[in-house]
Here is the input.
Amino acid sequence: RPGISFSFRSDGKTEVVHVAAEGMKGSLAIAFGPKISENMLFGSAESSGVRVEVFLGRLEHNRASQSDLRLFVNDRPVRAPKLVSAIVGAYGSKLMKDRYPIGAVRVLIDGTSVDINVHPAKREVRFEDESAVMDVVKNAVEAALKEPDLTYKYDLTKFAESFGPPKEMPDLEVAKVHQATLRTPAAKETGREDSVIVPLAQVMNTYILAESAGSLLLIDQHAASERIVYEQILKGIETGKEISQTLLTPLVVRLTTAETRVLEENRPTLEKSGFRIEPFGKDAHALRSIPTVLGVAQGESALRNILADLARMAPSKKVGLEVIWRVACHTAVRAGESLSSGQMRTLVADLVRTESPYTCEHGRPTMVVLSTGDLEKLFKRRV
Here is the structure.
Protein backbone atom coordinates (compact mmCIF):
# COMPACT_ATOMS: atom_id res chain seq x y z
CA ARG A 1 0.00 0.00 0.00
CA PRO A 2 1.47 3.43 -0.95
CA GLY A 3 2.78 5.58 1.89
CA ILE A 4 3.65 2.74 4.27
CA SER A 5 7.21 1.79 5.25
CA PHE A 6 8.24 -1.24 7.28
CA SER A 7 11.24 -3.38 8.13
CA PHE A 8 11.62 -6.90 9.47
CA ARG A 9 14.40 -7.91 11.84
CA SER A 10 15.32 -11.44 12.89
CA ASP A 11 18.00 -12.26 15.50
CA GLY A 12 19.14 -8.65 15.42
CA LYS A 13 19.59 -8.64 11.62
CA THR A 14 17.44 -6.64 9.25
CA GLU A 15 16.00 -9.11 6.75
CA VAL A 16 13.47 -6.99 4.85
CA VAL A 17 13.15 -3.25 4.30
CA HIS A 18 10.21 -1.76 2.43
CA VAL A 19 10.39 1.93 1.64
CA ALA A 20 7.17 3.90 1.32
CA ALA A 21 6.16 4.50 -2.29
CA GLU A 22 4.83 7.77 -3.65
CA GLY A 23 1.33 6.92 -4.85
CA MET A 24 0.21 3.99 -7.01
CA LYS A 25 2.91 4.58 -9.65
CA GLY A 26 5.58 4.23 -7.00
CA SER A 27 4.04 1.00 -5.73
CA LEU A 28 3.87 -0.40 -9.27
CA ALA A 29 7.54 0.45 -9.85
CA ILE A 30 8.50 -1.45 -6.68
CA ALA A 31 6.31 -4.45 -7.59
CA PHE A 32 7.12 -4.78 -11.30
CA GLY A 33 10.20 -2.65 -11.94
CA PRO A 34 10.39 0.76 -13.62
CA LYS A 35 10.62 -0.53 -17.22
CA ILE A 36 7.28 -2.32 -16.97
CA SER A 37 5.50 0.15 -14.70
CA GLU A 38 6.36 3.21 -16.80
CA ASN A 39 4.56 1.73 -19.79
CA MET A 40 1.53 0.26 -18.03
CA LEU A 41 -1.92 0.69 -19.52
CA PHE A 42 -4.43 2.49 -17.34
CA GLY A 43 -8.19 2.20 -17.48
CA SER A 44 -11.09 2.94 -15.19
CA ALA A 45 -14.85 2.51 -15.08
CA GLU A 46 -17.59 3.34 -12.63
CA SER A 47 -21.20 2.25 -12.27
CA SER A 48 -23.77 1.45 -9.60
CA GLY A 49 -21.53 2.54 -6.74
CA VAL A 50 -18.54 0.50 -7.97
CA ARG A 51 -15.32 2.07 -9.24
CA VAL A 52 -12.55 -0.01 -10.80
CA GLU A 53 -9.05 1.14 -11.70
CA VAL A 54 -6.67 -1.13 -13.62
CA PHE A 55 -2.93 -0.78 -14.19
CA LEU A 56 -1.90 -3.47 -16.66
CA GLY A 57 1.36 -4.42 -18.33
CA ARG A 58 1.61 -4.20 -22.10
CA LEU A 59 0.54 -7.25 -24.11
CA GLU A 60 4.06 -8.68 -24.23
CA HIS A 61 4.21 -8.64 -20.43
CA ASN A 62 2.13 -11.71 -19.64
CA ARG A 63 2.72 -14.74 -17.44
CA ALA A 64 1.83 -18.44 -17.25
CA SER A 65 0.40 -17.92 -13.73
CA GLN A 66 -1.79 -15.38 -11.95
CA SER A 67 0.89 -14.53 -9.38
CA ASP A 68 1.69 -11.12 -10.88
CA LEU A 69 -1.93 -10.02 -11.22
CA ARG A 70 -2.56 -8.20 -7.94
CA LEU A 71 -6.19 -7.72 -6.88
CA PHE A 72 -7.36 -5.19 -4.29
CA VAL A 73 -10.83 -4.57 -2.90
CA ASN A 74 -11.04 -1.32 -0.94
CA ASP A 75 -7.20 -1.43 -0.88
CA ARG A 76 -7.17 -4.88 0.75
CA PRO A 77 -5.23 -7.56 -1.20
CA VAL A 78 -7.56 -10.42 -2.08
CA ARG A 79 -7.87 -13.63 -4.07
CA ALA A 80 -10.87 -13.65 -6.38
CA PRO A 81 -10.94 -16.24 -9.20
CA LYS A 82 -14.07 -14.69 -10.73
CA LEU A 83 -12.35 -11.30 -10.90
CA VAL A 84 -9.43 -12.95 -12.71
CA SER A 85 -11.84 -14.62 -15.15
CA ALA A 86 -13.51 -11.26 -15.86
CA ILE A 87 -10.13 -9.61 -16.49
CA VAL A 88 -8.88 -12.36 -18.82
CA GLY A 89 -12.26 -12.47 -20.58
CA ALA A 90 -12.04 -8.74 -21.32
CA TYR A 91 -8.78 -9.35 -23.21
CA GLY A 92 -10.52 -11.73 -25.61
CA SER A 93 -8.18 -12.71 -28.45
CA LYS A 94 -5.52 -10.20 -27.37
CA LEU A 95 -4.15 -12.69 -24.83
CA MET A 96 -2.87 -16.20 -25.55
CA LYS A 97 -4.66 -19.16 -24.00
CA ASP A 98 -3.49 -20.03 -20.46
CA ARG A 99 -1.64 -16.72 -20.11
CA TYR A 100 -2.40 -13.95 -17.63
CA PRO A 101 -1.72 -10.20 -17.66
CA ILE A 102 0.44 -8.61 -15.01
CA GLY A 103 -0.55 -5.53 -13.06
CA ALA A 104 -2.90 -4.30 -10.36
CA VAL A 105 -6.69 -4.10 -10.28
CA ARG A 106 -8.30 -1.89 -7.66
CA VAL A 107 -12.01 -2.29 -6.83
CA LEU A 108 -13.61 0.42 -4.69
CA ILE A 109 -17.05 -0.46 -3.36
CA ASP A 110 -19.31 0.25 -0.41
CA GLY A 111 -18.21 -1.99 2.46
CA THR A 112 -21.75 -3.22 3.01
CA SER A 113 -21.80 -4.65 -0.54
CA VAL A 114 -18.86 -7.01 -0.04
CA ASP A 115 -18.32 -9.88 2.39
CA ILE A 116 -14.69 -10.13 3.55
CA ASN A 117 -15.33 -12.98 5.98
CA VAL A 118 -15.38 -15.78 3.41
CA HIS A 119 -11.87 -16.91 4.47
CA PRO A 120 -10.29 -16.82 7.96
CA ALA A 121 -7.40 -14.71 6.64
CA LYS A 122 -9.87 -12.36 4.95
CA ARG A 123 -8.07 -12.89 1.61
CA GLU A 124 -11.19 -14.00 -0.28
CA VAL A 125 -14.27 -11.86 -0.84
CA ARG A 126 -17.84 -12.27 -2.05
CA PHE A 127 -19.77 -9.42 -3.68
CA GLU A 128 -23.45 -8.80 -3.09
CA ASP A 129 -24.03 -8.03 -6.78
CA GLU A 130 -21.28 -10.05 -8.43
CA SER A 131 -22.52 -9.54 -11.99
CA ALA A 132 -22.49 -5.74 -11.65
CA VAL A 133 -18.93 -5.73 -10.28
CA MET A 134 -17.68 -8.01 -13.08
CA ASP A 135 -19.24 -5.73 -15.70
CA VAL A 136 -17.38 -2.71 -14.30
CA VAL A 137 -14.13 -4.68 -14.16
CA LYS A 138 -14.56 -5.72 -17.79
CA ASN A 139 -15.27 -2.12 -18.83
CA ALA A 140 -12.16 -0.85 -17.03
CA VAL A 141 -9.91 -3.46 -18.70
CA GLU A 142 -11.41 -2.70 -22.12
CA ALA A 143 -10.76 1.02 -21.52
CA ALA A 144 -7.08 0.25 -20.82
CA LEU A 145 -6.82 -1.84 -23.98
CA LYS A 146 -8.01 1.08 -26.13
CA GLU A 147 -4.40 2.30 -26.08
CA PRO A 148 -3.74 3.14 -29.77
CA ASP A 149 -0.35 1.38 -29.90
CA LEU A 150 -0.34 -2.17 -28.55
CA THR A 151 2.53 -3.46 -30.69
CA TYR A 152 4.93 -5.79 -28.91
CA LYS A 153 8.13 -4.06 -27.77
CA TYR A 154 11.24 -5.82 -26.52
CA ASP A 155 14.35 -4.73 -24.62
CA LEU A 156 17.29 -5.53 -26.89
CA THR A 157 20.01 -4.37 -24.50
CA LYS A 158 21.18 -7.90 -23.60
CA PHE A 159 20.90 -8.97 -27.23
CA ALA A 160 23.15 -6.08 -28.29
CA GLU A 161 25.66 -6.85 -25.53
CA SER A 162 26.01 -10.43 -26.81
CA PHE A 163 27.83 -9.17 -29.91
CA GLY A 164 31.56 -8.58 -29.93
CA PRO A 165 33.38 -5.92 -31.98
CA PRO A 166 32.18 -5.75 -35.58
CA LYS A 167 34.15 -7.85 -38.03
CA GLU A 168 35.14 -6.82 -41.51
CA MET A 169 32.25 -7.62 -43.81
CA PRO A 170 32.53 -8.66 -47.46
CA ASP A 171 31.07 -6.40 -50.14
CA LEU A 172 27.38 -7.14 -50.57
CA GLU A 173 25.12 -6.27 -53.43
CA VAL A 174 21.96 -4.67 -52.08
CA ALA A 175 18.83 -5.44 -54.06
CA LYS A 176 16.40 -2.60 -54.70
CA VAL A 177 13.04 -3.19 -53.06
CA HIS A 178 9.81 -1.67 -54.30
CA GLN A 179 8.30 0.42 -51.50
CA ALA A 180 4.58 0.92 -51.26
CA THR A 181 3.18 3.49 -48.90
CA LEU A 182 0.01 2.61 -47.03
CA ARG A 183 -2.10 4.81 -44.84
CA THR A 184 -4.27 3.48 -42.06
CA PRO A 185 -7.94 4.50 -41.92
CA ALA A 186 -8.60 7.99 -40.60
CA ALA A 187 -8.51 8.44 -36.84
CA LYS A 188 -12.18 9.39 -36.73
CA GLU A 189 -13.09 5.99 -38.16
CA THR A 190 -10.86 3.77 -36.02
CA GLY A 191 -9.87 5.80 -32.98
CA ARG A 192 -6.19 5.15 -33.85
CA GLU A 193 -3.83 7.85 -35.04
CA ASP A 194 -3.29 8.02 -38.76
CA SER A 195 0.10 6.52 -39.61
CA VAL A 196 2.03 5.32 -42.64
CA ILE A 197 3.33 1.79 -43.03
CA VAL A 198 5.83 1.04 -45.78
CA PRO A 199 6.37 -2.68 -46.56
CA LEU A 200 10.04 -3.14 -47.44
CA ALA A 201 10.65 -6.86 -47.98
CA GLN A 202 9.65 -10.40 -47.10
CA VAL A 203 12.04 -12.27 -44.79
CA MET A 204 12.31 -16.08 -44.77
CA ASN A 205 8.98 -16.22 -46.63
CA THR A 206 7.35 -15.76 -43.23
CA TYR A 207 7.81 -12.17 -42.03
CA ILE A 208 7.20 -8.81 -43.65
CA LEU A 209 9.73 -6.10 -42.86
CA ALA A 210 8.10 -2.67 -42.79
CA GLU A 211 8.76 0.90 -41.66
CA SER A 212 6.35 3.18 -39.85
CA ALA A 213 6.83 6.57 -38.16
CA GLY A 214 10.51 6.11 -37.40
CA SER A 215 10.14 2.49 -36.29
CA LEU A 216 10.95 -0.84 -37.88
CA LEU A 217 8.13 -3.40 -37.86
CA LEU A 218 8.42 -7.15 -38.31
CA ILE A 219 5.02 -8.60 -39.21
CA ASP A 220 4.18 -12.31 -38.95
CA GLN A 221 2.32 -12.87 -42.22
CA HIS A 222 0.38 -15.92 -40.97
CA ALA A 223 -0.70 -14.30 -37.68
CA ALA A 224 -1.65 -11.10 -39.52
CA SER A 225 -3.65 -13.01 -42.12
CA GLU A 226 -5.40 -15.01 -39.36
CA ARG A 227 -6.54 -11.78 -37.68
CA ILE A 228 -7.84 -10.44 -41.02
CA VAL A 229 -9.75 -13.62 -41.92
CA TYR A 230 -11.11 -14.04 -38.37
CA GLU A 231 -12.61 -10.54 -38.34
CA GLN A 232 -13.91 -10.86 -41.89
CA ILE A 233 -15.82 -14.00 -40.91
CA LEU A 234 -17.18 -12.45 -37.70
CA LYS A 235 -18.31 -9.29 -39.51
CA GLY A 236 -19.88 -11.37 -42.26
CA ILE A 237 -21.86 -13.34 -39.68
CA GLU A 238 -22.90 -10.16 -37.81
CA THR A 239 -23.92 -8.19 -40.90
CA GLY A 240 -25.09 -11.01 -43.17
CA LYS A 241 -22.50 -9.94 -45.75
CA GLU A 242 -21.55 -12.62 -48.26
CA ILE A 243 -18.13 -14.05 -47.36
CA SER A 244 -18.11 -17.05 -49.70
CA GLN A 245 -17.45 -17.58 -53.38
CA THR A 246 -19.51 -20.03 -55.42
CA LEU A 247 -17.40 -22.43 -57.45
CA LEU A 248 -18.21 -22.70 -61.14
CA THR A 249 -17.55 -26.44 -60.90
CA PRO A 250 -18.20 -27.97 -57.47
CA LEU A 251 -15.32 -29.93 -55.95
CA VAL A 252 -16.24 -33.53 -55.18
CA VAL A 253 -14.70 -34.43 -51.82
CA ARG A 254 -14.72 -37.97 -50.43
CA LEU A 255 -14.87 -38.01 -46.63
CA THR A 256 -14.50 -40.83 -44.14
CA THR A 257 -17.37 -41.71 -41.78
CA ALA A 258 -15.57 -39.85 -38.97
CA GLU A 259 -15.01 -36.75 -41.12
CA THR A 260 -18.67 -36.75 -42.19
CA ARG A 261 -19.79 -36.88 -38.56
CA VAL A 262 -17.58 -33.89 -37.66
CA LEU A 263 -18.89 -32.05 -40.72
CA GLU A 264 -22.52 -32.55 -39.70
CA GLU A 265 -21.83 -31.52 -36.08
CA ASN A 266 -20.29 -28.23 -37.20
CA ARG A 267 -22.18 -27.56 -40.44
CA PRO A 268 -23.94 -24.33 -39.27
CA THR A 269 -20.70 -22.59 -38.28
CA LEU A 270 -18.82 -23.88 -41.33
CA GLU A 271 -21.54 -22.50 -43.59
CA LYS A 272 -21.45 -19.14 -41.80
CA SER A 273 -17.68 -19.16 -42.38
CA GLY A 274 -18.09 -19.52 -46.14
CA PHE A 275 -18.19 -23.28 -46.81
CA ARG A 276 -21.25 -24.81 -48.49
CA ILE A 277 -21.10 -28.60 -48.68
CA GLU A 278 -23.85 -30.94 -49.87
CA PRO A 279 -24.13 -34.76 -49.97
CA PHE A 280 -23.13 -36.14 -53.38
CA GLY A 281 -23.57 -39.89 -53.39
CA LYS A 282 -22.00 -42.52 -51.13
CA ASP A 283 -19.11 -41.13 -49.02
CA ALA A 284 -18.93 -38.09 -51.30
CA HIS A 285 -19.78 -34.42 -50.82
CA ALA A 286 -19.95 -31.53 -53.26
CA LEU A 287 -18.03 -28.46 -52.10
CA ARG A 288 -20.03 -25.69 -53.79
CA SER A 289 -18.73 -22.58 -52.00
CA ILE A 290 -15.55 -21.69 -50.15
CA PRO A 291 -14.48 -18.59 -48.18
CA THR A 292 -13.53 -15.67 -50.41
CA VAL A 293 -10.05 -15.56 -48.89
CA LEU A 294 -9.26 -19.01 -50.32
CA GLY A 295 -8.05 -19.91 -53.75
CA VAL A 296 -10.01 -22.69 -55.47
CA ALA A 297 -7.02 -25.03 -55.20
CA GLN A 298 -6.96 -24.57 -51.41
CA GLY A 299 -10.62 -25.40 -50.81
CA GLU A 300 -10.43 -29.15 -50.25
CA SER A 301 -7.19 -29.15 -48.22
CA ALA A 302 -8.46 -26.33 -45.99
CA LEU A 303 -11.73 -28.19 -45.34
CA ARG A 304 -9.91 -31.42 -44.49
CA ASN A 305 -7.49 -29.65 -42.12
CA ILE A 306 -10.38 -27.90 -40.37
CA LEU A 307 -12.29 -31.17 -39.93
CA ALA A 308 -9.14 -32.87 -38.59
CA ASP A 309 -8.70 -30.06 -36.03
CA LEU A 310 -12.32 -30.24 -34.96
CA ALA A 311 -12.11 -34.03 -34.55
CA ARG A 312 -9.29 -33.57 -32.03
CA MET A 313 -11.18 -30.97 -30.00
CA ALA A 314 -13.07 -31.85 -26.85
CA PRO A 315 -16.86 -31.70 -27.40
CA SER A 316 -17.17 -28.86 -24.86
CA LYS A 317 -14.91 -26.68 -27.01
CA LYS A 318 -16.77 -27.15 -30.28
CA VAL A 319 -18.48 -23.80 -30.05
CA GLY A 320 -18.83 -21.10 -32.68
CA LEU A 321 -15.69 -19.04 -32.02
CA GLU A 322 -13.48 -22.11 -31.66
CA VAL A 323 -14.64 -23.34 -35.06
CA ILE A 324 -14.06 -19.92 -36.62
CA TRP A 325 -10.54 -19.89 -35.15
CA ARG A 326 -9.81 -23.13 -36.98
CA VAL A 327 -11.27 -21.78 -40.21
CA ALA A 328 -9.16 -18.61 -39.93
CA CYS A 329 -6.02 -20.62 -39.19
CA HIS A 330 -6.39 -22.92 -42.18
CA THR A 331 -7.53 -20.30 -44.67
CA ALA A 332 -4.89 -17.70 -43.81
CA VAL A 333 -1.63 -17.04 -45.66
CA ARG A 334 0.87 -19.68 -44.51
CA ALA A 335 4.34 -19.27 -43.05
CA GLY A 336 6.80 -20.14 -45.81
CA GLU A 337 4.52 -18.81 -48.53
CA SER A 338 6.20 -16.39 -50.91
CA LEU A 339 4.36 -13.07 -51.32
CA SER A 340 4.64 -10.49 -54.07
CA SER A 341 5.03 -6.78 -53.27
CA GLY A 342 1.35 -6.30 -54.07
CA GLN A 343 0.28 -9.12 -51.76
CA MET A 344 2.37 -7.67 -48.93
CA ARG A 345 0.82 -4.24 -49.44
CA THR A 346 -2.69 -5.71 -49.44
CA LEU A 347 -2.05 -7.80 -46.32
CA VAL A 348 -0.65 -4.84 -44.35
CA ALA A 349 -3.48 -2.57 -45.52
CA ASP A 350 -6.10 -5.13 -44.47
CA LEU A 351 -4.38 -5.67 -41.11
CA VAL A 352 -4.43 -2.00 -40.08
CA ARG A 353 -8.16 -1.88 -40.85
CA THR A 354 -8.98 -4.60 -38.32
CA GLU A 355 -10.32 -3.91 -34.84
CA SER A 356 -7.37 -5.63 -33.11
CA PRO A 357 -4.37 -5.50 -35.46
CA TYR A 358 -1.75 -6.30 -32.81
CA THR A 359 -2.59 -9.98 -32.13
CA CYS A 360 -4.04 -12.92 -34.01
CA GLU A 361 -7.21 -14.57 -32.70
CA HIS A 362 -5.09 -16.86 -30.49
CA GLY A 363 -3.43 -13.88 -28.78
CA ARG A 364 -0.04 -14.24 -30.53
CA PRO A 365 1.53 -10.96 -31.69
CA THR A 366 1.05 -10.08 -35.35
CA MET A 367 3.96 -7.63 -35.23
CA VAL A 368 6.88 -6.49 -33.14
CA VAL A 369 8.36 -3.02 -33.31
CA LEU A 370 11.89 -1.69 -32.97
CA SER A 371 12.06 2.04 -32.35
CA THR A 372 14.87 4.28 -33.55
CA GLY A 373 16.18 4.20 -29.99
CA ASP A 374 16.19 0.38 -29.97
CA LEU A 375 18.21 0.27 -33.18
CA GLU A 376 20.68 2.89 -31.93
CA LYS A 377 21.26 0.81 -28.79
CA LEU A 378 21.62 -2.35 -30.86
CA PHE A 379 24.33 -0.77 -33.01
CA LYS A 380 25.83 1.01 -29.96
CA ARG A 381 25.16 4.45 -31.42
CA ARG A 382 23.55 5.18 -28.07
CA VAL A 383 24.84 3.76 -24.78
Notes: The chain has a mean pLDDT of 80.
